[in-house]
Write a structure and sequence with these properties.
233 residues, alpha/beta, Metallo-beta-lactamase, Chain A, 6-stranded mixed sheet, 25% helix
């Protein structure tokens, strides 16, 4: 858990596909949001309640079922529907992902807050900055969690993993968008920014942007042309 005066930050492994969900908030305000609530929604809400935190919203990195719930690979994954049945809170989703999210999960337009790049959400002394990072899906977004006087935490969904990046061979994915998201949005973040991905695809659950700039081959390529070759595009 990041060292901080006010920040409440829980990384929780959930489900059968090595997913991470997150609880992020302000201890002083007693308020938190859930990031990608799927698989273990009740347990996540119970954790927040046990820690004295009121869940006031959900943040969605992208609309794939293993992050928001729905039918996939013959499985039914609980997600936003279960969250709304216990806590009818707003769901913050990128504006380009909102219609797909409604189709997959059945949530209503009234449940959604459509977000654009650069939007922010204030939770006490903690700010969540919305970074639009298309590539894996058109409306993929990452969340930069900031508190004055402390290094940021990047919750990167399926855009950036430890020593890897998200798939670009799925419907709606785009390899050139992924390159720009990685190199023009995420790679410019300070080296001391902590990185928290959407899946446990490495021995460690988190890293730093500085470490990933040194070791992640998808961040080390020098040009879009090299990236396209590297990705087999």
């Amino acid at each position: 858990m990041p060292e901080s005066r006010d920040l409440y930050f829980q990384q929780v492994q959930v489900g059968e596909m090595a997913n991470f969900a997150y609880l992020i908030g302000s201890r002083a305000a007693g308020e938190a949001v859930l990031v990608d609530p799927a698989w273990s929604v009740d347990a996540l809400l119970d954790t927040a309640e046990r820690d004295g935190m009121r869940v006031s919203g959900a943040l969605v990195t992208h609309y794939h079922q293993d992050h928001v719930g729905g039918e996939i690979f013959g499985m039914t994954i609980e997600g936003l529907d279960r969250l709304l049945s216990r806590a009818p809170v707003p769901i913050h989703v990128n504006e380009l992902e909102a219609d797909g999210l409604r189709k997959i999960t059945g949530v209503s337009e009234n449940d959604l807050v459509r977000r654009a790049a650069g939007d922010t959400l204030e939770l006490g002394g903690v700010t969540v900055r919305f970074l639009h990072t298309p590539g894996h899906t058109p409306g993929s977004q990452c969340f930069l969690v900031e508190e004055a006087g402390h290094a940021g935490q990047l919750v990167s969904g399926d855009t950036l993993f430890l020593n890897s990046c998200g798939r670009v061979d799925l419907p709606g994915s785009n390899v050139e968008d992924m390159y720009r998201s990685l190199h023009e949005v995420l790679k410019v973040l300070p080296d001391d920014t902590a990185l928290y991905p959407g899946h446990l695809y490495a021995p460690e659950p988190h890293s730093t942007m500085g470490e990933q700039k040194r070791t992640n081959p998808y961040l080390r390529v020098a040009s879009l042309e090299q990236f396209l070759i590297f990705m087999g595009a």
